[in-house]
Inverse folding.
């Protein structure tokens, strides 16, 4: 089991794409949205519904390879904790989009490399933007998404492209 919570500072569009970039390097993965303030993630069944109805066995144990997405749906985060914990325990890999650390999960904060972003903070995922010359602080440096990748996520599709390969390095970093 591998799990990682992620938040993107300074850029809500990147906050929408980053969980998918992290998930793309895994064979079977669940993306859970715990960010009620961010752009909604695509998906049919929501975390709120899972909390209300309880997860089914097919939701707890993936039956195929690939990515599943669980949109937020307006659920209270404390009410969602038992369901999220059960999903993290049962799925081979989970990416949680959240604005704050989720207790028990390593937390990676992503930041675009643009002038004015504080780089002397703790480790972050540094996302290349091509805007200005910015020296990243500690943490992996990854490629930023292109316009087509952002469009794909907004349309409810998995983004594609070479830029996704660089995000696999994020899983190797010792997040806390």
């Amino acid at each position: 089991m591998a799990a990682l919570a992620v938040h993107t500072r300074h850029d809500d569009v990147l906050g929408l794409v980053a969980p998918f970039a992290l998930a793309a390097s895994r064979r079977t993965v669940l993306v859970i949205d715990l960010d009620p303030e961010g752009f909604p993630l695509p998906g049919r069944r929501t975390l709120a519904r899972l909390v209300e109805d309880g997860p089914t066995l097919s939701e707890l144990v993936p039956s195929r390879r690939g990515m599943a997405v669980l949109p937020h749906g307006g659920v209270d985060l404390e009410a969602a904790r038992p369901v999220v914990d059960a999903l993290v325990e049962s799925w081979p890999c989970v990416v949680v989009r959240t604005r704050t650390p989720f207790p028990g999960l390593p937390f990676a904060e992503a930041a675009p490399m643009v002038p004015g972003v504080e780089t002397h903070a703790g480790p972050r995922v540094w996302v290349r933007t091509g805007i200005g010359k910015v020296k990243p602080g500690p943490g992996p440096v990854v490629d930023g998404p292109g316009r087509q990748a952002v469009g794909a996520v907004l349309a409810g599709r998995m983004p594609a492209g070479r830029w996704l390969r660089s995000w696999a390095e994020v899983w190797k970093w010792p997040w806390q």
Remarks:
- Strands lie at 2-8, 28-33, 66-70, 93-97, 107-112, 125-127, 141-142.
- The two ends are 16 Å apart (CA to CA).
- The chain has a mean pLDDT of 91.
